[in-house]
Write a structure and sequence with these properties.
It comes from Candidatus Pantoea communis. The chain is α/β, with parallel strands linked by helices and 446 residues long. The protein has three domains: 47 residues, no CATH class; 133 residues, Aspartate Aminotransferase, domain 1 (Alpha-Beta Complex); 257 residues, Type I PLP-dependent aspartate aminotransferase-like (Major domain) (Aspartate Aminotransferase, domain 2, 3-Layer(aba) Sandwich). Helices cover 35% and strands 16% of the residues. The chain has a seven-stranded mixed β-sheet with strand order 4-10-9-8-7-5-6, sandwiched between helices. Helix 2 runs antiparallel to helix 9, helix 3 packs parallel to helix 9 and helix 4 packs across helix 8. The protein starts with 22 loop residues before the first helix and ends with a helix.
Length: 446
């Protein structure tokens, strides 16, 4: 029997759903299978055929309007005019690689580094988060002299050879590297510990000790600071500090994967790691950086990066190209000028409060937690045992799709809805989302 991926096969269209499709959708899914092969996955038992986007909304081929509550690629909103204009103007002038001088990459880097702690003072650019995390692992190994990388049990950090080897969320069909160790996630809902930070630090120390027992030298801890693939685990603020201290005490570095919590999404800070008062050795970012234009980055302390960069040249043909930098610069400008970090904090808090009120109406909701516009909505069979209800979560995403709300699931049990809309999401959209959840759970009898 084929293995299933936890991140790719959950909430996905499969062959057994094909008979329930209308003719036009069936034609498209059949063609995809024929020309794109079998590795790709579509969301939903009845896939959505999208043709247009604006802000927090999407439209399908039939003209139906959807509320996007999942997309952090178009982080500041689909088809934002500032990004379109910046890319268009730069494309008309020049697009080439970084082996020629150009002001854009320098101007953007100065602006980006101004958002980080002073100790982080160098930047390198790629096209995808996978590439950024791949390079981060290489930097960790060069700096530490070790090879061992620790990640959380349901982590997702990319699709390259190195990053897929530290991405257990890709499922049992994708083997982890022999030098990878998994640490239990810091789940405040399920872990009964008086000090979650101390508990988590001890879990990391156990894995470092296991590496030593197997002759593996520890290189670093790679984590998304909101632990999104583990089910969105944002609190309590500050719990990461003790874990980072353990990492440093054992000669490793902390790599903060900010693809999901970065760029103002959590509301509390521009970067997700800043909610915990820690200073990473390396920061990686990707999707939200360019609002749909492929661009990613690695930011680092100069002494940490030097262990790699002083000896090994690095070149990425499209990484840091002027068009990508124009898009990225436009995103930074919009976040500042539109006050999107504060917007995320305020609107996210109101959304969280309304979602938590649903717990009074639906016993199937075990926990609602989040930071800014990044919320985990956990479904259980009963609140006493906290038994995860994956089947309900999957049925709920399908019902929400029928109510024209798009999202998906996360967590090791696939029972947490990951509510992560573009930052263009407004207070006026809360009723649509909360109302759709309420109706859908009622229709499902839960």
């Amino acid at each position: 029997m084929a293995t299933r991926s936890t991140i790719m096969d959950t909430n996905s269209f499969r062959a057994e759903h094909a008979d329930g499709l209308d003719a036009a959708t069936r034609q498209l899914t059949d063609k995809r299978s024929k020309v794109l092969g079998e590795s790709y996955r579509l969301f939903y038992r009845k896939p959505v055929h999208l043709v247009r986007g604006e802000g927090q909304y999407l439209w399908d081929a039939a003209g139906n309007k959807y509320l996007d509550v999942y997309n952090n690629v178009a982080s500041i909103g689909h088809c934002h005019p500032a990004v379109i204009e910046a890319v268009n103007q730069q494309m008309k002038m020049l697009n080439t690689h970084t082996r020629y001088l150009h002001e854009r990459i320098l101007d953007y880097t100065e602006e980006l580094l101004a958002t980080t702690p002073d100790a982080i003072d160098r930047a390198m650019y790629m096209c995808t988060g996978s590439e950024a995390n791949d390079l981060a692992i290489r930097v960790a190994r060069a700096f530490s002299g070790g090879t061992g990388i620790i990640v959380s049990q349901e982590a997702y950090h990319g699709t390259s050879d190195l990053t897929s080897g530290v991405s257990p969320a890709l499922g049992s069909g994708q083997p982890l590297a022999a030098t990878t160790r998994l640490v239990s996630p810091p789940d405040a809902y399920r872990v009964n510990a008086p000090d979650l930070g101390e508990w988590f630090a001890n879990e990391i120390q156990k894995q470092i000790d296991d590496m030593k027992a197997h002759g593996i030298k520890f290189a670093g801890f790679l984590a998304d600071s909101i632990f999104s693939s583990d089910g969105v685990l944002p609190n309590p603020r500050g719990f990461l500090q003790k874990a980072v201290d353990v990492v440093h005490a054992n000669g490793g570095i902390f790599i903060a994967d900010e693809v999901q919590p970065g760029f103002g999404r959590t509301g509390d800070a521009f970067w997700g790691f800043a909610r915990h008062g820690v200073v990473p050795d390396v920061v990686t970012t990707g999707k939200p950086m360019g609002n749909g234009i492929p661009v990613s980055g690695l930011l680092a302390k100069s002494d940490v990066l030097a262990a790699f960069s002083d000896d090994i040249p690095y070149f990425n043909t499209f990484g840091g190209n002027p068009v990508a930098m124009a898009a990225a610069q436009a995103v930074l400008t919009v976040i500042k000028e539109e006050g999107l970090q504060e917007h995320s904090r305020v609107v996210g808090a109101k959304l969280l409060a309304e979602l938590q009120k649903l717990m009074d109406r639906h016993e199937s909701i075990g926990d609602v937690r989040g930071a800014g516009l990044f919320i985990g909505f956990e479904l259980v069979q009963d609140r006493t045992s906290k038994t995860p209800d994956k089947a309900l979560a999957l049925d709920l995403t399908e019902k929400l799709r029928d109510h024209h709300v798009l999202t998906s699931v996360a967590g090791p049990h696939g029972n947490v809805l990951k509510l992560r809309p573009p930052l263009a999401f407004q207070e006026s959209d809360i009723d649509w989302l909360v109302g759709a959840l309420d109706k859908s759970l009622t229709e499902l009898g839960r």
